[in-house]
Amino acid sequence: MDSTNNNKYLFSLDIKVRDYELDSEGIVNNAIYQHYLELTRHEFCTATGFSFDEMRREGIIPVVNRIEIDYRRPLVSGDVMESKLWVEERGVRFIFHQDIFHKASGDVVVNAKVSIVCLEDGKLSRGERLHEYFRPFLETAKQ
Amino acid sequence: MDSTNNNKYLFSLDIKVRDYELDSEGIVNNAIYQHYLELTRHEFCTATGFSFDEMRREGIIPVVNRIEIDYRRPLVSGDVMESKLWVEERGVRFIFHQDIFHKASGDVVVNAKVSIVCLEDGKLSRGERLHEYFRPFLETAKQ
Amino acid sequence: MDSTNNNKYLFSLDIKVRDYELDSEGIVNNAIYQHYLELTRHEFCTATGFSFDEMRREGIIPVVNRIEIDYRRPLVSGDVMESKLWVEERGVRFIFHQDIFHKASGDVVVNAKVSIVCLEDGKLSRGERLHEYFRPFLETAKQ
Amino acid sequence: MDSTNNNKYLFSLDIKVRDYELDSEGIVNNAIYQHYLELTRHEFCTATGFSFDEMRREGIIPVVNRIEIDYRRPLVSGDVMESKLWVEERGVRFIFHQDIFHKASGDVVVNAKVSIVCLEDGKLSRGERLHEYFRPFLETAKQ
Questions:
Q1: Which CATH architecture has domain D2-142?
Q2: Which of B119, C20, C25, D41 stands 20 to 30 A from A17 (CA)?
Q3: ipTM field
Q4: Backbone torsions φ then ψ of C44, nearest 5 degrees
Q5: Domain extents for chain B?
Q6: Is the CB of residue D29 less than 8 Å away from at least one CB of chain A?
Q7: Is D35's CB within 8 Å of A18's CB?
Q8: Chain B partners of D25 at a C-beta cutoff of 8 Å?
Q9: What is the pLDDT of residues C98-140, one digit of tens each?
Q10: Is the separation of the CB atoms in C45 and C51 below 8 Å?
Q11: What does the alpha-carbon distance between residue C111 and residue A14 come to, in Å, rounded to a whole number?
């Protein structure tokens, strides 16, 4: 399945479920996955050498303009996930393909696509600075 | 635009932004919109006479299996939103069409589609009980 | 009991529990009460004519330096609370006495004391501006 | 200072600030520290061999009945903290002394005292089961 194609992933982060993230069903609340996905993107950016904090200081604001999440199976107390991503450029947008796996079983937990645009000095930009930082990763993704 | 077609809405909830929902950009964090959307669905269900709490007690667990959100403009401190929805049935799924508007300006804030399935006693169900409660609303939606 | 002395309250806000605030015990998570308390203080400030957003724009940053919360009884899905406060000055600190009640029964849910100091231009201030806005309320509190 | 006496600590957990935990001041929101403190207690319990999930399955519900937090300095994006605790018994209560340090500088971030009681089958208990698990740690704490 394309969305879980292991060859394309550029980055992986292990995250352990925290009990305060559970809802009254005893499973991780749906909204929390957006936190996991954001955390993974931010850690990826830090790993490329350009943290969100630095982006802000340089006047670059990455903005999520669309998100799609398919929920495959829930996570519960004590679970560890592997949160993986690869990135694709489409015009002015960066599409983050993000999949989360239940580490112990390898089961898919969520498949997500997150579309990001960049604001520079308040205006939509081509994201050249981000592109520059992501280039080695984007080229890998094309192969 | 279809997704903001006022005629179809079955339910509307005013929600005021709370300052702890803002992120370091001073705007409502993306993940918080899932909270707003969930709150709106739960209040809608309560209004139909069948709250989530009652569903749980009857062994019916509505589960989000897919969500799509388009982010159109941000909300800031003090903003009030109108969170509206209509519902559509597709096989075993209920599709909640949910749009959030900036109340003062009428601007679209987010357009979302949330797909829900029902578990009864742990198994996927046709959601007959929910269907029964939603029927007057679903029939309105068809017209 | 002093901490629930109805005569002293300057402000009251009704807040309804949202299902995403429940934890896996089916009760509101302890940390969420800090959100309720902050929301109540911010709405109080807005009611006095000086919102947190305006404070920030004027370079005044109110900072919580100590919090004490006694948890008396839990809140569950569907509950409505009355969140009340009165304010006391002690040197450079404003002490917010905040109590939350279960609306239907009148039961005490939490008793809290929140100590606030003001930073102006990054330095500890006597909070004169805040004092000015709070004066009518502070004088009432003394009686 | 007693509250930061390194000899007494039984457990330490490194936690990295996540960007979604920041508020509009760009610092970690006050309520989030309760999450950090809870996370640290739960990880401590897991380390003693008795996770919160297992407690629940055995009908033991630890309940926070009082919390005191002194906020010393804020945390910002990218910061790593050391979250430490020691435990003391007082009658039916377990008092968790929890201190969080800014890892890079050693600065105190918060000092907290969290009082816990145990419900067994819905009634207040002496917490014998917890006591049994905590005993090696409690004895260390006395020395």
A1: Roll (3.10)
A2: B119
A3: 0.90
A4: -60, -45
A5: 2-142
A6: no
A7: yes
A8: 24
A9: 999 999 999 999 999 999 999 888 788 877 878 887 777 776 5
A10: yes
A11: 39
